[in-house]
C-alpha cells in the first residue's frame, strides 16, 4: 500500500491506494471515526488511547499518562449527559464554544457527537 502517488508533472496525491485502486478503508467494519474508536477498543482490549503530559512546577513536562479507550468513551458519555442535563439542544443550529488550554478534556469533548450522536 502506498500513501502517496507521484504524477509526471511533479504533482502528488496523498491517498492510500493499491496500484490505481483507491483504498477507502483499511477494515470492512470501519467507515467512521466512531467505528475506528470502537475497533481500537476491541482490538487493543481497552488499551491506551489518549496520552498527555502534565507540566511540572519547574516548567518541564512529566512522563506520559494514558487514558484507555473505555476511559475516553466514558468521559465523553458523561459530558454528553451533562449537556443534556442542562437542556442543550442537539442539531445543526446549536453551537458550543470551548475556551481551554490544550488538555485531554478538550479533545474528549470534541468527540461527543462522534461517539454518541449527541
From TrEMBL:
One of its GO terms (molecular function) is ATP binding. One of its GO terms (cellular component) is membrane. InterPro entries: ANL_N_sf (IPR042099). Transmembrane segments: none annotated. Keywords: ATP-binding, Ligase, Nucleotide-binding. PANTHER family: AMP-BINDING DOMAIN-CONTAINING PROTEIN-RELATED, LONG-CHAIN-FATTY-ACID--COA LIGASE. This is AMP-binding domain-containing protein. It comes from Anisakis simplex.
Amino acid at each position: 500500500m502506498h500513501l502517496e502517488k507521484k504524477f509526471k508533472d511533479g504533482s502528488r496525491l496523498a491517498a492510500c491506494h493499491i496500484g490505481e485502486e483507491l483504498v477507502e478503508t483499511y477494515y470492512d467494519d470501519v467507515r467512521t471515526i466512531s467505528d475506528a474508536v470502537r475497533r481500537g477498543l476491541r482490538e487493543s482490549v481497552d488499551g491506551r488511547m489518549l496520552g498527555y503530559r502534565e507540566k511540572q512546577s519547574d516548567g518541564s513536562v512529566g512522563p506520559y499518562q494514558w487514558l484507555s479507550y473505555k476511559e475516553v468513551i466514558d468521559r465523553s458519555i458523561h459530558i454528553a449527559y451533562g449537556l443534556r442535563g442542562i437542556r442543550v439542544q442537539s442539531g445543526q443550529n446549536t453551537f458550543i464554544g470551548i475556551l481551554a488550554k490544550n488538555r485531554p478534556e478538550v479533545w474528549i469533548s470534541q468527540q461527543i457527537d462522534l461517539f454518541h450522536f449527541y
